[in-house]
Each structure stands twice: as structure tokens, then as C-alpha cells.
């Protein structure tokens, strides 16, 4: 094996890495926030009293869970010009990632809502709370506890999925690995560096989730 | 005696099933009305119609002179003056006992926190749970949770208390604790509606017993008299089998 | 565009074959890892857990790049896109499967082990005759989910040039003037295949009477 692992050989490319990592981070953060909002909408749709609305919500989730993200990204990227929109790679990736993640967020939120016993709504309403007050003081805190861990996992999933933005020509960490690797032929080094970046991002989210969780939920496991 | 509650020809249907078939009832201040009867005859539903948790298909409900049926604004106003205690407690699991009791007065009635907290602590003394104010529902027994639920209902200074089978989900040993608290409340002169299977309690503490069967009031009157010898056959049979 | 349907169907078959192969390898690998975790040797267990955490914290795409571009440089061998894709997918699947299999084994109560030990079964015999059959009932439903995830991830093989369903869809798109209808058709094919498989999985879950809502639901790929 005539290959020696020398990190020094790719030092010159670390400047680009910084920019790429920022793109990954920005793309992921925006996609997470937007997909939570969209996912909440879909989750509420699935609880609607109107059957067509419920079916639409369920169909959205099924489409996003069964279609590869790559295909969705290509669709957004190539279909946008047809609809007259000029989307940058970042925007196309953001839209595709958001649409896909929203399907998963909807399921997480729906499970959280279902886990709140109907007696809670009744107790709160019987005390004269308005709909908004019921949601804010009684429903939301309980939903949040239930979805907290799955939400953390979904955040990590989005960070990892952002790597597919390579396919629509966005400069993020995965494309950095491919580009730099091709020019320097140092694929092992670039792989290790890229892996470390993702590892740090994902494990930071994990650790933050656990630490913040201890602060937010001091009572530990609920009965 | 001021009239607190007036029900006139109340009708409640679930689909094609009629649960309440023309209930008419007047309740005055200070009365302790105990609803008894076989399970599934609409007693709980009756309470839930009064505070709008269930809608009604016919008849009128009037609370302290205010018509309640169908009007969301009126229902909310009425709910602020009625305290409800549920069979399964329905305490808010993410809040401590103290926070549970304080939530509605602060959020719904917009009272200042300090005042509410002082009142809440007094109530905890009253239900003998001062040592548990910082416990979460999951850490408390059923009897403790129900007493917290009673404190929670009391903290909003309600004009009427409704108890929906308050002891049915409790271990026999803790039933007594809860009944004791309810007895104290009755002695204070509160107006209470109680759906219960505890006939002895109804006879001792109630000022009126209402026997319901199949969505109708079959008989009502003085609890002790009814237990000793009810007028109607059905009431006699029911009270005979339960009380023995 | 209709003329290209046979091509698309053939490509779907290629995708299914790739995913199936990767899944099999991943299942074997995952089982091996789960069994290794049973051994009471701490460093080994830490190694397996490290492997799992590693592969769950990095995107499969960079693994794919590494296997396809990097390994040939390292080992001075040629790797076809097919082999690279199969390996990368299998590595990823094995990380998830090791957790699924471990959960399946854990689901078999201690009493079973004790009864087998009392009757004189050796560890391999216990595994084979008593634990594995019971564990399998718990392992099968989530495995369907892992397969669907692997199938979606197989679309990434198009990036390194393997002619599977996605690449074929893109080629058809080029050949028909670059619209987005071929892409919709592409998505529809994936949807139909995966939805059908998930229905089979749901039926399997019902028949095995195991009502587990798997939160081991795979990546978003």
C-alpha cells in the first residue's frame, strides 16, 4: 500500500471548507425551522374534521417518506425554471430539503398531539381557558416533552441529508470532499475531514439536546 | 334561597342514541345534590352539558341567570364560575401540584401571582397536602391527585362545584380521604353537584338525592328518606342492591 | 415518453437488485455486529457501538464518495460504481440493522435463556433454536423500513455514474427535451415501489402481532 495519510496536503483547502461548512449549517438550520412550520401545518391537517384535508395531509407524508430526497431535489431544481422561477442552488436545495423534512416533522408532531390525553383538553376547557390558552399552557408543553427526542433525531437527519445538495451544485461539505479529493487525489484525508465535520455537527446537536433536556425536564421519566 | 342553576327539558343525543331525555332541575345556593343511578344513564353527561363540554340538542340551561346553551362566550364566562373535578383527575402532568392549582387563576382570571399563591397554599393546607406542593402528578397517589384536583377547582373561587364520580378511580383506602374533603366543603355551605356511587356519602352529606335511569330523573328527594324507602320501584331496587 | 417505459422498468429492476443485495449484506453485517455486542468484552462492545455511532453521524454520500474514489487509490484496485454503491449502502444498512437485531434479541425474555440453559443447550444452540426464531418476529417489521431506506439511498448511486433508476430517469429527461414530466414519472415509480413494500411490511406486522411503531425509522434519504 503506497499511500500515506498526510493531512498537511489538504491544508490549502481548509479555507474553502469553512465556507462549505457554513453553507451546510445555514441550509440545515433554515430547512429545520421551515419544515417544523410546514410539518405543524400538515399535522394539523391530519386532525381536521374535513376528510379531503385529512387525506391530503396523509398523502403528503406518504409521498415524502417514499420518494428519495434526491429525486425531490432534482424536481425542484429542474421544475422551477419551467414555472418561471430562477432558483439558486441554495434555494432549490432549501425548498427540496424543507418539503422532504416536513413530511417527517408532521409525523413527529402528530404523535406528540395524539399522546395528550383528551382529559387534558377537558380539564383546561372546564376551567374556562380559551383555545389559545389551552394550547399554550396545557397542550404545547406536553407535546413538546413527547417530541423532544425524535425532534433532535430529525435535526440530525436534516444535517446529514443536506449533503445531497451536492447534486444541485451547492458548495457544501460533501461537494468540498469530492472537489478537493479530485484535485488533490487525497480522498482518504478529505473523507476523514468531512466525516469529522459532520460528526462534530451531529454529536453537538445530540449532546446539546441531552443537556438542554435535563434542564427543561427536571422530573425525568414521566409515569 | 338564590337559584344557581336551572335546567329545563334538557335533551342530549349521541347520533341516534338519546342520553338525556328531557331533564328539568333547579338547584339553589348551598344545596348538595347527589346524582345516583346505574352506570351509563347520563349522570356524567348531565354535568358535562352544564359547563359546555357537551353540546345539547334541546332544552335550556341557565346558570346564575345567564343562558348557557350554544353560546361560546357565555360558556366561557360560566366555566370561570364553575369548578369541575373529574373521575380521572386530569391534572396537568408537566406542572407541580402548586402550579396546577395556580394556573387557571393566573392565566384565565388574570389575578396577581402573589395573591393566587397565598390562596393556593391555604387550600393545600385545607386538603392536607401542604407537604406535596412541589410534587408532580406522576409522583402522587390517586387520592393525593384528586385532592389536588379539588384544590385546583377551589382556587378559582367557583360558585358551583361539580364532581364527576370523584372516587370511582381510587383505591378503597384513599376514597375516605377524598370524601372527607368533600364533606368539609359541604359543611362550608358550598353548592355542589356530585355524581357518585357512594350512597352512604350521599345520604350523610347530600341535601338532595336524584335517582336517574335511562336519561330521565326517576325520583328525587331527601337522601336519607330515599335510602330508607324510596317511592318508586326502580329507585328502591337500585338503592337496595347498592346500599344493602 | 411512453417508449421509454420498458427502459425505466428495467432500471427499476436494477435498483431493486442493488438495494436487495446491499440489504442482505447489511443484514448479515448487522447481525454479526449485534452478536458481537453480546460478548461481555468491553473493548469489543465499545468498538461496535463506535462503528454504529460513526455511521449514523455521517452522510452516506461521503461514504459512497470514499468507497468509489478513495478506496481505489488506497488499495490500487478498480471499483465499479455498482460495487462501490453496494458496499456503501451495505455499510450504512449494517449500522441500523445491528440496532434492530440487538433490539430483537433483547426482546426475548430472560426466562427463555434460563430455560435453555437449564436444559443444557449451548450458547449457539440456544441462539439457533430458541432465541433467533422469537427474535425474528420482532426484527422483520423494522427491517422492511430499513430496506425502503436503502432503496431510497440507492438513488445516490446515480451521482457516481451507476445506471440505476434515477440516472435512467435523468437520461430519459435529456432525451425528451428536458422537461420535468420524466422526473415526476421517476418519483412516481419510486413511490409506487416503496409504498407497496411498506404495505407488505404493515401486513407483516399485523400477522406477526408485533405492534411496534419503529422509531428506528431510517434517514431522510
The percent range for strand residues of chain B is: 25-35%
* Percent of residues in β-strands of chain C: under 5%
Q: What composes the largest sheet of chain B? A: 6 strands, mixed
Total domain count of chain C = 1
CATH A-level architecture of chain C = Orthogonal Bundle
Shape of chain B: globular
Low-confidence stretches of chain B: none
The most extensive interface between chains reads: A-C, 49 and 45 residues
Q: Name the overall outline of chain C.
A: globular
What is the average per-residue confidence, as pLDDT of chain C, rounded to a whole number? 87
- What is the tally of helical segments of chain C? 8
Instruction: Give me the Rg of chain B, rounded.
Output: 18 Å
Q: What proportion of the residues of chain B is helical, as a percent range?
A: 25-40%
Mean pLDDT of chain B: 91
Could you explain the architecture of this structure?
The complex is a heterotrimer of chains A (223), B (244) and C (221). Chain A has 223 residues and is mainly α. Chain A has a single domain, classed as MetI-like (MetI-like fold), CATH 1.10.3720. Helices cover 76% and strands 0% of the residues of chain A. Chain A is built from eight helices and no strands. Chain B is of the alpha/beta class and 244 residues long. Chain B has two domains: 3-81 and 161-243, P-loop containing nucleotide triphosphate hydrolases (Rossmann fold); 91-158, no CATH class. Helix content of chain B is 39%, strand content 25%. Chain B has a six-stranded mixed sheet, with helices on both faces. In chain B, a hairpin with a 2-residue loop joins strand 4 (58-63) and strand 5 (66-67). Chain C has a single domain (2-207), classed as MetI-like (MetI-like fold, Orthogonal Bundle), CATH 1.10.3720. The two termini of chain C are 27 Å apart. The chains are: A mainly alpha (223), B alpha/beta (244), C mainly alpha (221). Chains in contact: A-B, A-C. Chains A and C meet through helix 2, helix 3, helix 4, helix 6 and helix 7 of A and helix 2, helix 3, helix 6, helix 7 and helix 8 of C.
Amino acid at each position: 500500500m503506497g499511500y500515506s495519510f498526510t493531512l498537511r496536503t489538504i491544508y490549502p483547502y481548509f479555507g474553502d471548507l469553512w465556507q462549505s461548512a457554513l453553507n451546510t449549517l445555514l441550509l440545515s438550520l433554515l430547512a429545520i425551522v421551515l419544515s417544523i412550520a410546514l410539518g405543524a401545518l400538515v399535522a394539523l391537517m391530519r386532525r381536521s374534521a374535513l376528510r379531503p384535508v385529512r387525506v391530503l395531509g396523509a398523502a403528503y407524508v406518504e409521498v415524502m417518506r417514499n420518494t428519495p430526497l434526491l429525486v425531490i431535489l432534482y424536481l425542484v431544481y429542474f421544475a422551477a425554471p419551467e414555472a418561471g422561477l430562477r432558483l439558486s442552488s441554495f434555494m432549490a436545495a432549501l425548498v427540496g430539503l424543507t418539503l422532504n423534512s416536513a413530511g417527517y416533522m408532521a409525523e413527529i408532531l402528530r404523535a406528540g398531539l395524539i399522546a395528550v390525553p383528551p382529559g387534558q383538553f377537558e380539564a383546561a376547557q372546564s376551567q374556562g381557558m380559551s383555545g389559545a390558552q389551552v394550547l399554550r399552557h396545557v397542550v404545547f408543553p406536553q407535546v413538546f416533552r413527547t417530541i423532544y427526542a425524535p425532534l433532535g433525531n430529525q435535526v440530525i437527519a436534516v444535517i446529514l441529508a443536506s449533503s445531497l445538495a451536492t447534486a444541485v451544485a451547492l458548495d457544501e461539505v460533501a461537494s468540498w470532499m469530492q472537489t478537493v479529493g479530485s484535485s488533490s487525489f487525497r480522498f482518504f484525508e478529505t473523507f476523514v475531514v468531512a466525516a469529522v465535520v459532520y460528526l462534530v455537527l451531529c454529536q453537538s446537536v445530540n449532546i446539546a439536546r441531552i443537556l438542554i433536556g435535563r434542564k427543561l425536564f427536571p422530573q425525568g421519566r414521566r409515569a | 334561597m338564590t337559584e344557581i342553576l336551572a335546567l329545563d327539558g334538557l335533551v342530549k343525543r349521541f347520533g341516534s342514541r338519546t342520553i338525556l331525555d328531557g331533564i328539568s332541575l333547579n338547584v339553589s345556593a348551598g344545596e348538595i345534590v347527589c346524582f345516583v343511578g346505574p352506570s351509563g344513564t347520563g349522570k356524567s353527561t348531565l354535568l358535562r352539558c352544564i359547563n359546555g363540554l357537551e353540546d345539547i340538542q334541546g332544552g335550556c340551561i341557565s346558570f346564575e341567570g345567564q343562558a348557557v346553551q350554544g353560546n361560546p362566550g357565555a360558556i366561557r364566562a360560566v366555566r370561570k364560575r364553575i369548578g369541575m373535578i373529574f373521575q380521572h383527575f386530569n391534572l396537568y402532568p408537566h406542572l407541580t401540584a402548586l402550579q396546577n392549582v395556580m394556573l387557571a387563576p393566573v392565566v384565565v382570571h388574570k389575578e396577581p401571582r402573589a395573591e393566587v399563591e397565598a390562596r393556593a397554599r391555604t387550600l393545600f393546607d385545607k386538603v392536607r397536602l401542604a407537604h406535596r406542593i412541589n410534587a408532580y402528578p406522576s409522583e402522587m397517589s390517586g387520592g393525593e391527585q384528586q385532592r389536588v384536583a379539588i384544590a385546583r377547582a377551589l382556587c378559582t373561587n367557583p360558585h358551583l362545584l361539580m364532581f364527576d364520580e370523584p372516587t370511582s378511580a381510587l383505591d378503597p383506602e384513599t376514597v375516605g380521604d377524598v370524601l372527607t374533603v368533600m364533606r368539609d366543603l359541604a359543611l362550608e355551605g358550598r353548592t355542589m353537584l356530585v355524581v357518585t356511587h357512594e350512597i352512604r356519602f350521599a345520604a350523610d352529606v347530600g341535601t338532595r338525592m336524584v335517582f336517574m335511569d335511562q336519561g330521565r330523573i326517576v325520583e328525587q328527594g331527601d337522601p336519607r328518606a330515599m335510602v330508607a324507602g324510596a317511592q318508586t320501584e326502580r329507585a328502591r331496587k337500585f338503592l337496595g342492591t347498592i346500599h344493602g | 415518453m411512453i417508449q421509454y417505459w420498458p427502459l425505466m422498468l428495467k432500471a427499476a429492476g436494477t435498483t431493486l437488485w442493488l438495494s436487495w443485495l446491499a440489504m442482505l449484506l447489511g443484514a448479515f453485517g448487522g447481525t454479526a455486529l449485534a452478536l458481537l455486542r453480546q460478548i461481555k468484552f468491553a473493548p469489543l462492545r465499545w468498538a461496535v457501538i463506535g462503528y454504529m455511532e460513526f455511521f449514523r453521524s455521517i452522510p452516506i454520500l461521503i461514504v459512497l464518495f470514499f468507497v468509489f474514489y478513495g478506496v481505489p487509490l488506497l488499495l490500487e484496485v478498480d471499483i465499479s460504481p455498482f460495487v462501490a454503491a453496494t458496499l456503501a449502502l451495505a455499510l450504512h444498512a449494517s449500522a441500523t440493522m445491528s440496532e434492530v437485531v440487538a433490539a430483537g434479541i433483547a426482546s426475548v425474555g430472560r426466562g427463555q435463556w434460563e430455560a435453555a440453559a437449564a436444559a443444557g443447550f449451548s450458547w449457539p444452540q440456544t441462539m439457533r433454536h430458541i432465541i433467533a426464531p422469537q427474535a425474528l418476529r420482532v426484527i422483520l417489521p423494522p427491517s422492511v423500513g430499513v430496506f425502503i431506506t436503502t432503496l431510497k439511498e440507492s438513488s445516490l448511486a446515480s451521482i457516481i455514474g451507476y445506471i440505476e433508476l434515477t440516472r435512467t430517469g435523468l437520461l430519459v429527461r435529456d432525451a425528451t427535451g428536458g422537461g420535468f414530466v420524466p422526473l415526476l414519472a421517476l418519483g412516481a415509480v419510486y413511490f409506487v415501489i416503496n409504498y407497496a413494500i411498506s404495505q407488505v411490511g404493515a401486513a407483516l406486522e399485523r400477522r406477526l402481532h408485533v405492534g411496534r411503531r419503529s422509531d428506528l425509522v431510517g434517514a431522510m434519504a
